[in-house]
Design a protein that fits this description.
This protein is an alpha+beta fold. The protein folds into three domains: about 1-95, Alpha-Beta Plaits; about 105-240, Pseudouridine synthase I, catalytic domain, C-terminal subdomain (Alpha-Beta Plaits), CATH 3.30.70; about 250-350, Aminopeptidase (3-Layer(aba) Sandwich). It is built from seven helices and 17 strands. The protein has helices spanning about 25-40, 75-80, 135-145, 195-210, 215-220, 285-300, 310-315, and strands at about 1-10, 45, 55-65, 85-95, 105-115, 130, 150, 165-180, 180-190, 235-245, 250-255, 260-265, 275-280, 305-310, 325, 330-335, 345-350. Strands 1, 2, 3, 4, 5, 6, 7, 8, 9 and 10 form a ten-stranded mixed sheet that branches. A hairpin with an 8-residue loop joins β12 (about 260-265) and β13. α3 packs across α4 (about 195-210). The longest helix is centred in the last third of the chain and has 17 residues, at about 285-300. The two termini are about 25 Å apart. The model has no long low-confidence stretch (mean pLDDT about 95).
Length: about 350
């Protein structure tokens, strides 16, 4: 058995999104059917980003398993001869069977296009959102700056599950005007349902003068979908690319007004150990932060994760960490590292109940 990775570009206009649907044709359906016919075996692709109806892509990623002996880098050419003209495979290659496009760490980049002129342009109608109000791009840039970094983006998503983790990291959020077209380009560790479209809709409100730029911070802090702007149409959104991590980052740091932590991953490759230091964290965010970051460390390949609460040490002790305390699927136990470097460390042990790689 071999696993093949595809980089897929498509015009999403005619499709009901990526994922299989009972009431319309999807990108996944077309790829499954075409690959099955080409390789003479049942094929089911696994997509990295399940884009919505009308959303476009230049570089979505999918994988599938096959017994075929066709070289991985040649599959794209054979497949493109059979696909409709609004779907094209940009590249194909064989990857390890362990590679999963939704579990591997990556940076996703999206663009949202806004046609900003007095009269709509028919040739742009399928690939941009039309706004006839004059938009102030400088104000939009200032508002966008509040979203950079690791935050709880609950205000900017249509929450499908109350259990869904809404913390994400935005690495960059740029706005540029090219003649009548405003291009919002956003890169992050991942995006919630409708997150980019809601951010774009909120930035449009700022550009129109409905919200001052500083209001973006208040919307973020509200953690309430009703506080943000509208979810603007899917047709202006394009998944540009997905850049997968080639090696584990030596250190991860999350820092905002609510929490600050440092995850040392330098020992994962040698000893399998990672160390999470909670530098500062509000009590109401503490359990959630520990659970989320410990889980990320295990996903990144750690076999053991040690946790310490630096803030509590500075306050002469705290019960925020204690042997036997549970954080999601992880329970703390006393560690041989207790007292090392004047810090009290605990080992976070996975107790099952879910796939730790998810």
């Amino acid at each position: 058995m071999r696993r093949i990775k595809l980089v897929v570009a498509y015009d999403g206009t005619a499709y009901c999104g990526w994922q299989l649907q009972p009431n319309g044709v999807t990108i996944e359906e077309i790829l499954n059917k075409t690959l099955s016919e080409l390789l003479k075996e049942p094929v089911m692709v696994i997509g990295a980003s399940r884009t919505d109806s009308g959303v476009h892509a230049m570089g979505n990623v999918a994988v599938f398993d096959t017994e075929s002996r066709i070289p991985g880098d040649k599959i794209c050419f054979a497949l493109n001869q059979r696909l409709p003209e609004d779907i094209r495979i940009q590249s194909s290659e064989e990857v390890p069977l362990t590679f999963h496009p939704r579990k591997a760490n990556c940076i996703k980049t999206y663009e949202y296009r806004i046609l900003n002129r007095k009269t709509d342009m028919p040739l742009q109608r399928l690939y941009s959102y039309f706004c006839y109000f004059d938009l102030d791009v400088e104000k939009m840039r200032k508002a966008a700056s509040f979203l950079i970094g690791e935050h709880d983006f609950k205000s900017f998503c249509t929450v499908r599950s109350q259990a869904e983790e809404t913390v994400r990291t935005i690495y960059s959020l740029d706005l540029n005007r090219e003649n009548d077209m405003i291009i919002i380009r956003i890169s992050g560790s991942g995006f919630l349902y409708n997150m980019v479209r809601i951010i774009a809709g909120t930035l449009v409100k700022v550009g129109m003068g409905v919200y001052p730029p500083e209001h973006m911070e208040e919307i973020l802090e509200a953690r309430n979908r009703a506080a943000a702007g509208p979810t603007i149409p899917a047709r202006g959104l394009t998944l540009v690319n997905m850049e997968y991590e080639k090696e584990t980052a030596p250190c991860l740091e999350g820092k905002n007004s609510h929490w600050h932590y440092v995850l040392d991953q330098t020992g994962i490759s040698d000893t399998g150990a990672a160390w999470l230091s909670i530098v500062r964290c509000e009590d109401k965010e503490f359990d959630r932060t520990v659970m989320r970051v410990v889980h990320q460390a295990y996903r990144n390949g750690a076999r053991t994760v040690f946790v310490c609460d630096e803030e509590a040490a500075g306050k002469n002790g705290s019960d925020r960490l204690a042997a036997g305390k549970k954080f999601g699927y992880y329970r703390l136990r006393e560690s041989e590292m207790c007292g090392m470097k004047d810090r009290k460390w605990y080992e976070a042990v996975y107790e099952g109940g879910n796939d730790v790689s998810r």
